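=== Structure Prediction Worksheet ===
Name of assembly: unnamed complex
Input type: mixed (protein and possibly other molecules)
Chain count: two
Listed entries:
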Amino acid sequence: EVQLVESGGVLVQPGRSMKLSCAASGFTFSSFPMAWVRQAPTKGLEWVATISTSGGSTYYRDSVKGRFTISRDNAKSTLYLQMDSLRSEDTATYYCTKYTFDYWGQGVMVTVSS
Amino acid sequence: DVVMTQTPVSLSVAIGQPASISCKSSQSLVGTSGKTYLNWLLQRPGQSPKRLIYLVSKLDSGIPDRFSGSGSETDFTLKISRVEADDLGVYYCLQGTHFPLTFGSGTKLEIK
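=== Predicted Assembly ===
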């Protein structure tokens, strides 16, 4: 059974950093590009970033470019999202997903507030 | 960025009746491979999104054939032939052809 389990979400002050993790199991993690998608409270879905199988290629939405870093550890079957210089508008539930969007984690809430 | 215009915003449908959701993209979603990366997702209340359809019309495993997807280039439709109670939630279209990937704004399906 495919499982994606996010962790790391919490309350953080504007300007600070946070790192999310997503532990994958039930499939060959290293064979699939992965992505992060977020959803602000009561809002729709928004793609954040994508990473290739090796980690050699990464893609970001403009509003997080230069502040967020997606990475992966294929040996640990884990996906990461390093979020720096956080802003209030980054407040959202963050979902880890296979890039084919057929499997999603349960989501982790990130609140950016003073 | 590719804008995905999804209509209607909400839909109230009686059990057993059909439903239809439209998604129009601001540019063609045909990729360099010739494939069209258009997905439909359902997010039930309090749950993570779930993919229903990929590549315009391919049904995911376990999704009933009451659901169908159609369309091409910039114009796409999700149809439910006979709505059931379990179908309530918010439906999103998602284009995976062009970066940044973009979602439609969602259609909330309520049961009348």
